Amino acid sequence: MINVDSCQVYVAGFSFHKKPFYTSQLDVNGINTYLMRFQTDGRCRARYDGQLGLIESGDLLLYSPSEPYELKIDKEINSLGELTIESGDYHIFFGGPWIDKWWNAQARPTRMKLPLNEGFLILFRQIALEQRRMENPYPEISGYYMKILCLELDRQLKEQPTTTHKSYLAYQIKHYIEENASHMFKLDDVASHVGISVSRAVHLFKETFDTSIMQYTIDVKLDMARERIIFSPMSLENVAETSGFANYTYFYRVFRARFGMSPKQFRIANREQLK
């Protein structure tokens, strides 16, 4: 008997690329499961709406079985005018009767912009952690997390903010920060990107998101660093550098203040969960 409430996660993980990468499934069969891919760092190119388009931080891609899939990671010009290869993402291959029902309940775009906030990221992180466990007597847990993620996605789509000129500018600033947090930039760079003064940029961002531009930048950098500490083999010094911190001493201090432990302790504690 088929369990109509069944939801399965087949593969889930976090990838961070600093070298060119390419994969494609463009034949008539396409991919054979549902695929959700969330860009957390940098840029890449992926196929959606019939073409290979630019994917930036905060972009979520959603594919159904048999849809063509193509991903290309190569040099891209960031907002600072630099040619870099940097792309980080969560990816989940999933399926099941519950997912079929969820998918058919409403139309959703293949590419959508979502917030890089803790509430959303933690669901991807937990699913990836569940899939990496060496011993997992409760595999259905990842399925429950996946259901929550799907429903949270629908809530995010429903609650997209009504666009005004002020909120549009604030979200453009937010996207600039998320895209460039791993690089050094000034408030002047942020303001110039949206064509307004520094004081107006600071005021609009604070008014819209109730936090400062610089604090949000640090939060994004720390979220990048946390994912790399857990999932990548990078040294802690390299994590700090690639996450946009000028030096390891400063990174150590703000990381400890945010998470209550040193980067090394955090890595050990989280990798113990995978055993």
From TrEMBL:
Residues 171-269 form the HTH araC/xylS-type domain. Pfam families: HTH_18. Keywords: DNA-binding, Transcription, Transcription regulation. InterPro entries: Homeodomain-like_sf, HTH-like, HTH_AraC, HTH_AraC-typ_CS, Tscrpt_reg_AraC-type_HTH. The lineage of its organism: Bacteria, Bacillati, Bacillota, Bacilli, Bacillales. Coiled coil: none annotated. Gene3D superfamilies: Homeodomain-like. This is AraC family transcriptional regulator. One of its GO terms (molecular function) is DNA-binding transcription factor activity. The keyword Electron transport does not apply. SUPFAM superfamilies: Homeodomain-like (SSF46689), Regulatory protein AraC (SSF51215).
